[in-house]
Amino acid sequence: MSSGVLEEAIKKAAIAWISVDDGPAYALWCMPVESSLAVVSGPGEQFAPGLAEAQRATVRLRGDHGGLIVQAEAAVSRLDPGSAEWDEIAPQLAGKRLNASGTAEEVVARWAADGCTLVRLTPAADATTGAADLPAESQAAPPRETPARVETRRPFRLHRVKRR
Fold it and tell me: What's the burial of 54, exposed, middle or buried (CB within 10 Å: 0-12/13-18/19+)?
């Protein structure tokens, strides 16, 4: 697998499917940082169970056509508020945050105060699977059970519809 495909997919990434251990993959918005991805999660942000404590994660990236083109094992490194990496990456990531309440500086301050986690995912080029080696089937998991499911009913019609 060419590392060029991985690097190009990282450069264009706005969303990545990330899974920890054998858990389900979650679609998380991210920001490319050199040859890695920055992801924020926590209170008031996206849900990424286990990512803050993980050492490794599986990252799946899509291509221009929308399909999966590369899958890689990535090293997870947590960035602490006040560190040089946090001060460099957090404001950039906050600027990319859609529908953020407040300025980028306010968002970064909220992340630090609320205990949000900012991680950097650095894929290992030797643990990368390219499009040619990926399975042909969709790999879509069946929907998880949830109490939010609603029984669908026939639509209500006020008047009788005439057939032609």
Answer: buried
The candidate with the shortest Cα–Cα distance to 105, out of 46, 127, 25, 113, is 113
86-119 burial by CB neighbour count: b if 16+ within 10 A, else e?
beebbeebbeebeeeeeebeebbebbeeeebbbb
Check if the beta carbon of residue 63 is closer than 8 Å to that of residue 144. no
User: 80 Cβ partners below 8 Å, 6+ apart?
Assistant: 86
pTM here is 0.75
Q: In whole angstroms, give the CA distance from residue 118 to residue 49.
A: 13
Amino acid at residue number 144: R
pLDDT one-digit tens code per residue, 75-119: 999 999 989 999 999 999 999 888 888 899 999 999 999 999 999
Which residues are registered as beta bridge partners of 61?
70
